[in-house]
Amino acid sequence: MTFGPTVGNVGMYVAREMLASVPDDQRHAYLRMVEEISDLKYQLGVEVARQLPRLLAGRDQSLVQRYLDQVTGVAAAGWKSGVEVAKQLPDLYEAPDATLAGAYVEIISRATSGPAEDGATTALAGELDSLERELRDMEPKVKRAAELRTQLAARDRRDEKRRKHAVELAAALPPILARLRPRFRPTYLALVREVAAADPEASLEAADTLLDLLNSERIDIEGAGRWVERGLEVLERNREVGRGYFRLGSKYALEVLEELSEGLALKDVARVLKLFATALSGQEIAIRSSVEMQGADPFGSDHIVLPPEMRVFEDDAGNFRAYKVATAHGAGRIEFGTYGFSLEDIPATIAELHRRYPQEAR
Length: 362
Known about the structure:
70% of the residues lie in helices and 3% in strands. It is mostly helical. It has three domains: 104 residues, no CATH class; 98 residues, no CATH class; 80 residues, no CATH class. The strands form two sheets. Strands 1-4 form a two-stranded antiparallel sheet. It has a two-stranded parallel ribbon with strand order 2-3.
């Protein structure tokens, strides 16, 4: 129970009803006395808090001070004896024989302290007291050392995780670089380096995503730098969300990518181009994105492969004309059998080449 900022820890010893029984003008002194004697021992403070109100009610300040001195004197020899003396003394003060209280305190003091200590015991006690003071002084340092050990252990775990992802990145980068178009490599390496410095796990995601974005020309070099810059801002606020950004696993990452993408998107004109190609070639032809066809044959008699965005011109009309030109070329190749050609169709030419270049034909 707390009685205000000036009371300190006295609320631990003083019940509300105890304080209510003390005259108003003496409550501050009461709380101060309880706090002082409780510094010796918690149990001593509890008992004194119980007994003081009846003494203060008598308004005899000399008796109150005598009580505190006697209790403190006995407690110096043994706090348990001091607690019992604190409990019994007020009754003895009310006895007809005024000498009883003093005699009682002297008897308990002698019984508690025993015979006078020899020099060796005194020296040992003094040494112990000195060491205990040093230990008390060291407690904050011991606590701080424990806190530092905990913090360093947590950092070690984070560093170990970082090193693990760095090893994974070291294994993943070479094959990615082999697939990356050479003209993008300087920018790509610089961007992956930025992400790796912030978070190796996120850099694993960024390495794969940037490969696809740059190779497909979905964004240009400048756009890739701005996309990574936005991702680093997200990563700084929240690691997990930032990692999701770099693997295109968040709505915000896709919105930023859409914002940075320039030119005309194939998805917006694919249906019109499909009808155009079909009309030119006289057969059903599909329009495919180069991103969609990664790892598959880009040349076929039933589809035309085009970039996901067209950025040849500054306006959509110009870029649409560029799409139409590319579609017309593809449709022409399909119509006139460019992708259906086989060496078996020209046996005479093949025979002549074997005759003229026999060494090379082996």
